[in-house]
């Protein structure tokens, strides 16, 4: 017997349009039953393109939603994504929330999930991208033969969580770990963190500049990782986005 597709609500139409495109590729597993958004022209166009209902308030949502993808800025980015996630969990809806999410918000959301008997997860796209998977598999093969000497990494602050997830996948385990932020010069765009991950010396540069008027754009980088080994290095520093990953349309 075939499993019944999960009924999914996508919240937010900016980056949410990419979630809609991804969910559409797996009709046997997911059925998108609506878009929850502000009702802007972008949201209306997005809902029309995917032929799904557009909802502008929680009270109008159907009662049989299984999963909500909350693709809105969390509190740490000046948004209300976590507030919405908790409201939806109170309606017994499972949640996947787009990162970045502050660790205090994650704790509060997990408490809500436990209270209402639902699942809560932070979305973690990047470790599953083909280029990153190739990097992780290469690291596994090399680390069976050579001892890792150092890790040099850099990322935007918005994608620090997936960078650590990628490193944990590559190394196999995060412990023992420790991090110490270095003194930052005035107006310096990067915060340098030194420490250890899985007992390996780590230097991490985090780009901390965010445009408060447009925090979703103007990234200088995503993640860059170099693993230093006795006979060379393994590097991931860019991802290739193809037409089967990115929708043909992308609303501003």
UniProtKB/TrEMBL annotation:
Domain Gfo/Idh/MocA-like oxidoreductase N-terminal residues, every copy: 6-123
Transmembrane intervals: none
Coiled-coil stretches: none
Top-level taxon: Bacteria
Gene Ontology MF terms: nucleotide binding
Gene3D superfamilies per record: NAD(P)-binding Rossmann-like Domain
Domain Thiazolinyl imine reductase-like C-terminal: 147-237
NCBIfam families associated with the record: thiaz-red
Protein's recorded name: Thiazolinyl-S-HMWP1 reductase
Protein source organism: Klebsiella pneumoniae
Organism lineage: Bacteria, Pseudomonadati, Pseudomonadota, Gammaproteobacteria, Enterobacterales
Name of the gene encoding the protein in the UniProt record: ybtU_3
